[in-house]
Amino acid sequence: MKAPKIHFKSIAIFLSLLIMLQSCSVYKSVPISIEEAVQANSKVKVYKRNGDEVKYKKIIFSNDGQYYGIEKATIFKSNNNVLINEDQIVMIRVINKEPSAIMTGLLIAFICLPFFMVAHLAY
Questions:
Q1: What pLDDT band is residue 90 in, cutting at 50, 70 and 90?
Q2: CA-to-CA distance for 94 and 57, rounded, in angstroms?
Q3: d(C-alpha 10, C-alpha 113), whole Å
Q4: pTM check: above 0.85
Q5: Which H or E element spans position 73?
Q6: CA 111 to CA 108: how far, in whole Å?
């Protein structure tokens, strides 16, 4: 009867660490224009004059001539289009997909797997 507890505990540790690492993103160091961000059609980080950093799934240009950032949907809210004031933007950085995937893989290998192994060896 002890075996199932070991598996549940190790799976719970592994999944909780995996969830924490899902937000690992690496952004390109070279800033781009808002038009390039629309064309990139990928995750961006917008730096504003007031010091805020806002992440969007992507930036779109609407028919009314305005730019909108699409926020990531969560359990509590659906995709939300936020009007972007171009005058308030300091710079925009687009996600660098390859290093983001590599960093997530490395973090899983160096953080999650040792915890997973320790949980199995502890019992």
A1: very high
A2: 10
A3: 10
A4: no
A5: none
A6: 5
